[in-house]
Write a structure and sequence with these properties.
Chain lengths: 292, 416
Amino acid sequence: MKEFKILAVIVALVGITYYGIEPYAHSVMHPEVAAADFTFKDVKNVDTTLAGNVENGKALVEANCIACHAIEAAGHPAVMPNADAAASYGVVPPDLSSAGRIYDTNYLANFIFDPVTAMHLEHKYTPDSGKQFPMPSYNWMTPQEIMDVVAYLKSVAPKVSEDKEGHKATFEAACGRCHNMKYAGIEATTPTDNLKNYMGATPPDLSQYIKSRGEHYLHSFINDPQVLLHGTSMPRVGLSEKAQEEVIEYMEEVGDSKKAERESLGLYVMGYMVVFALFAYLWKRKIWEEVH
Amino acid sequence: MAEFKKANSVGEWFDQRLGVVNFSKVMMSEYWIPKEINFLWAMGMILAVMFKILLISGIFLLMYYKPDVNMAFDSVNYTIMQEVAYGWLFRHVHAVGASVVFLIIYIHMFTGIYYGSYKKGREMIWISGMLLFMLFSAEGFSGYMLPWGQMSYWAAYVITEIFGGIPLIGDELVVWIRGNFYVADATLTRFFMLHVLLIPLAILGAIVFHFYALRFPHVNNESGEFFDYEEEAEKFKAGNKKGSKVIPFWPVFLSKDVFVMGIFLIFFFYLVFFHYGFAMDPINFDKADGLKTPAHIYPEWYFLWSYEVLRGWFFEIAGISGKDLGLMAFGFANAIFLVLPWLDRSPMVKPANQRPYFKYWFWLMIADLMVLTEFGKLPPTGPNAWVGFGASLTFLVLFIALPFITKAEAKKVGGK
């Protein structure tokens, strides 16, 4: 009984200290922020209840988008090599093949209407900054036309598999123009020098971000970087909840590739130790019977 | 040369040459430990096992680790964690083990303080133990630098900077320790050497010394009773096992140790596989960058209390800067436990709770260390800074007051 009392005192003291330096200290250093909003309800220039017309959207896209954007999935190859594109625009313009799949509908429509407000980058592209976002606003289009474009982009977006390959495709489409992922052999499609110039700093390699930032942080951060890192030049990219989950999945598959092995082996080892402790207890009882 | 008869068994053959029968008696079956003990007496063996676990996992990590600022981070986080079969397991065991070993060290150490196991002949046990604590601290600090993450770099930066506060030689000393004007490749390589060679060697020696220091004064027991070991040992050998106050190290003492160790290892492996974040700080998964200071820099949890003693002094007193005061307090805090046997002036060897004045001191000290640990992690702003100052001051006052408190206690109990 006495031994249990001693154990209880130690567990209590260690528990209080642990609570203080781990969960509590981290909650002070990293206060909770507003929940991620996957409807992007702050941007509402386009009525997204309108049903889009794919045929009309196709014509609009071909007239307005493919001068700069590739859409490999619809047979429109890149206009120039990445290095040249980066030199011309500052950053490689995205291939729009998966845009209809990975971006939230409301975000995508409002992005076309006015990219800078959708990305939450008003602080970077102020009138006196002399900087201009490479893509113009399509606010002269009617909401119906914008929704036609969105409908077309959705119609051409290829489906991807629900596995690492699929997650990789989403990651590359969503993050791959700016971020390296060294541990997966992924290099940003925009050359480093252009990127540094365009973003103000070299965007970090994401190989270990699942560990250094963790899923919880990434969940908020990717949804809207300004919330956790006010003033950052990383845009809000507008991923749908599903696409964002795929991105985070991929970061885990690359950055914590042994997770499954760890968790299954862990149970075996602990099970072994339980059996060990049980036998050790029986042995101890047998030995101590003689001396007590 | 002695004449050797033909041995009749393998055992005898070894006994003739190495005296194994006597040796195992002296070391195991007739090495006497008091019977009146609880599971806290198993912490020493757990520490020995933890050291072995750290040594073995460390040897495996050493096969793939690259002590070079350009390769260290990836050799740990990619090669070891992802490419090498079970490399992640060795790293988790090593990192979590390094953190948990300090938990056990602290329990072991405070058990010693609680039961008064540092005085009346047991001074060398205490001193060799504190020597081990310092060596483990150096080992923990040097090891933390090796993954070359942001916290590795900045902790190394902040801690080596502390030596700059030493009068006259401070600035040169910092450069000498770092091997450069800033924390750089030379720093990493020399801390690698310290971590894998010099300090482990010293630890091995200190462990032997610690065990040896136990032989003459013997292990303390739960009530602090002094008795004649020879007499009790004779009783045990004569078959009066129940009446004797001692038990042999093997198998009686060890059977209990092994059981406690079994329970401990369930907990340990739970941490290794499922709850390791406390020992592998997220910030350290960003590669070291000398141009980017992390928002919060803090040492590993086991250094937090002494870090807070250092940090608690943030304003000038009597013309001495807060930084210098902190440094003095830090020096005091790290040396003072070493001389504990001479600060405790009461002759009582009893559990703290049975000592009229010491019990208050003991629990206050534990509470103060917990407050220091907690506030050592929190950002030192606003009221936190003042709590840190208060706790740091309390720490100094507690140790300065200890001789007087225990002297009064000695008077009260009349030399008992």
